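Lecture 7 notes: from sequence to structure.
We start with the chain below.
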Amino acid sequence: MFQYSFMQNAFIIAVLISVLCPVVGMFLVLRRYSMIGDTLAHSSLAGVAIGLMLGFNPIITAFVTTSIFGILIEILRTYYKKYAELILTVILSLSVGIAITIISSGHANANVETFLFGSILTVTRMDLWTVLALSLLSMTVIALFYNQLVFITFDEEGAKIAGVKVKRINYIFALLVAATISVSIQIVGVLVLSSLIALPTATALQLNKGFKVTLAFSILISMINIISGLLISYYMDAAPGGVTAILSVVTLLCVIAFQKFKGYNRQK
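Predicted structure tokens for the same chain:
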């Protein structure tokens, strides 16, 4: 299996996104922004369509387009403070409208389904270097702003009072979400990407540990699910995104059942 270069590339990318997705997902889930991740994941399809139409690398155009939509969400939040879900509807309508228009007109000169469902067969060495660069950039930014991100996650108003540049950090975080989505779409696919950002964190939260331990467990769970999904999809000749999503849900249900069983034994 690993004698094929595309499988080697896909495995390395899977390892990278299995770390990046839960790290970003941790902050999204705790800030109750999971639906923003879902919206931007679907918005990335517009970037993919634009890249395919213009003959550019779809990962790069997905990053640029999703970054623009992420920043636009932050701008619109100031106008719809009490109706945040309306912002997501506006962005989703615009991005999906762009994607459908380009794809249906026949200007996307490639198989868009590989980005909808994910595909290990289309991963090239150039894709690997692109994903590696964006992943390293994202992890560096997270390391630099880690304390501010944690502060804002648990107490945004307190962070403002303490002098943290909350608006600037939110814009930076929007770019991090965009980078995470763009590096993951080719392996995982647009349709299930948001679940892989949120589910490892949702599973780790069931363990009732502290922030750092929960983050570590979410990375471990993500790595197991994504790599297992990649390997199983290879032998099943199925899309890795769907298999990984199923494994993620099964893992969550198993952890919930285990915690229930452990609690029941304690009561006895």
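Points to note: The radius of gyration is 19 Å. DSSP finds twelve helices and no strands in the chain.
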